[in-house]
Amino acid sequence: MQRNLPATIQSDGTILLEVNNPDYENARDVIMRFSDLVKSPEYVHTYRLSVLSLWNAASCGFTSGEVIEGLGRYSRYPLPENIIVYIRDTMAKFGIIRLTRDDECFVLTSSDRFIMEEIKRSDKMAPHIEGTAGKDSLMIKPYSRGLVKQILIKMGYPCEDLAGYTRGDPLEISLVQTTSEGKPFDLRPYQRAARDAFWAGGSVRGGSGVVVLPCGAGKTIVGLGVMEQIGAQTLILTTNVVALRQWITEILDKSNLSEEMVKEYSGEKKEVGPVTVTTYQILTYRKRGTSKEIYPHFSLFNKKNWGLIIYDEVHLLPAPVFRITADLQARRRLGLTATLVREDGREDDVFSLIGAKKFDKPWKELEAQNWIATAHCHEIRVGFSQEGRLEYHIAGERDKYRIAATNPEKYSLVEDIVKRHSSDQVLVLGQYIEQLEHISTLLNAPMIFGQTPNSVREELYDKFREGNVRVLVVSKVANFAVDLPDANVAIQVSGTFGSRQEEAQRLGRILRPKPHGESAVFYTLVTRNTKDQEFSQKRQLFLTEQGYKYTIWESQSFLREWKRRNTT
Question: Is residue 393 part of a domain?
Answer without folding.
Answer: yes
